Amino acid sequence: MPVETRLLALAALVAFAALAGLVWRATTGRARRIVAGQQVNLNDLGAFKNGQPVTSFGSKVTFLQFSGEFCTQCPPTARVLGELEAKTPGALHIEVDITNRLDLANRFNILQTPTTLVLDKNGIVKSRISGAPKTTTLESELGTFAI
Questions:
Q1: Which of 100, 91, 95 is closest to 120 using CA atoms?
Q2: Residues 46-62: tens digit of each pLDDT
Q3: Strand positions, DSSP E, 46-105
Q4: Domains of the chain: residue spans and CATH
Q5: pTM for the structure as a whole
């Protein structure tokens, strides 16, 4: 293969990788609305908060965060969502480690951690945030629940 062809192929590969990176960066941490969201069953999650099983959703909104054992963005995301829960009446933050829960990863199509599902008071998925959520995104999501 001629050197020019190899250089052209390498340049095309670099351009594709750069474009893919820009697209990923632009979409990660942003909310994507879900039109017909599925109902989340708390019993299936097996989630605990303060050592107690979670048995109800937030009275206005629930942030369901899926984390992984080796996820570097999960602890900061949990901290931000926990602070948001503390200062927002009717909000609840639930964190579920899916490291050993491939059934949940498959059911909710979790491709990266953290992934946060925004649920209404009945546990219906209204939007999803893949990656660490941006503060403006979280504030916008809260605004849709008229808190």
A1: 91
A2: 888 888 899 999 999 99
A3: 48-49, 52-53, 61-67, 91-97
A4: 29-143 (3.40.30.10)
A5: 0.79
